[in-house]
Amino acid sequence: MGRLGRVQSRRYRVSGVPYDALTMDETLAQLEEAIRSRSAPLQHTAVNAAKIVRARSDPFLLESIEASDIVNVDGQAVVWAARLLGNPAPERVAGIDLMWELLQRANAHGFRVYFLGATQQTLDAVLERVRRELPGVVVAGAHHGYFGDEGAEAVVEGIASSRADILLVAMPTPQKERFVHAYLDRLDVAVAMGVGGSFDVLAGVTRRAPRWLQRAGLEWAFRLAQEPRRLFKRYAVTNAKFVALVASDALRKRSRA
What is the value of pTM for the model shown? Predict the structure, then answer.
């Protein structure tokens, strides 16, 4: 269960990809414990339908998920699929919500946070909002996400020297997983968390779906309406593949029963 075996939960699988049956509160408690103890770096990731489909054909991505100490379910479709297959999935733990809750704890306790990813303009807007709304957060450092392989060493050294408790990595899949998995032991952080496009949401570049759409599992449709050209293939093709994978799993389970 991850490289540390620290998560106090049972690990399950959807289409061969692992996840931990944790609530938001349970996840936050374990992240905060890791920050306070700093016994070893904790790698956090989250899985949704798109990542599960991709991990099925990307061995490195699957390896990175397997090595993570906490794997949350960030996708209502995955919650439903897990329950259909007879496995517990207490709730969806959306990455953007988890990040904001963790930042609020950083605000209350003075945790040091390093912000990595997005464009410089978006990153500046995120930092401005954090400093305005969460003044107790100690901004240990920040760097945009467009540095490439040739700039990775300098970024890693900057993070390690920042003495950050929390590293938020706002890069797309699989870039963020590759970065965290490759450099975790050198980053000298308590928690490394991939947060995908969450910086865009904090900066106001993209909008979240209303709560009722989120609860109905239709947040993807809201995002598709905002960026149809970029997201059509991801959602139209990937969602169909995910449904097919889950249906195949369900049929196999039924035949075994």
Answer: 0.90
Residue 5 lies in a domain: no
Q: Could you report the per-residue pLDDT of 186-240, keeping only the tens digit for each?
A: 999 999 999 999 999 999 988 776 777 777 667 767 777 777 777 777 777 888 9
12 strand-pairing partners:
19
Q: For the chain, what is the mean pLDDT? A: 91
The amino acid at 237: V
| 8 A C-beta contact, residue 27 and residue 70 | yes
Domain assignment present for residue 231? The answer is no
Give the domain CATH number at 90: 3.40.50
Tokens of 234: 């991801």
Under 8 Å between Cβ of 198 and 173: no
- Alpha carbon distance 125, 205 (integer Å): 9
Q: What is the pLDDT of residue 231?
A: 73
Counted domains in the chain: 1
Residue 59, judged by CB atoms within 10 A of its CB (0-12, 13-18, 19+), counts as exposed
State how far Cα 181 lies from the chain centre: 13
Tokens, residue 236: 């139209």
Give the whole-angstrom CA distance, residue 123 versus residue 142. Answer: 8
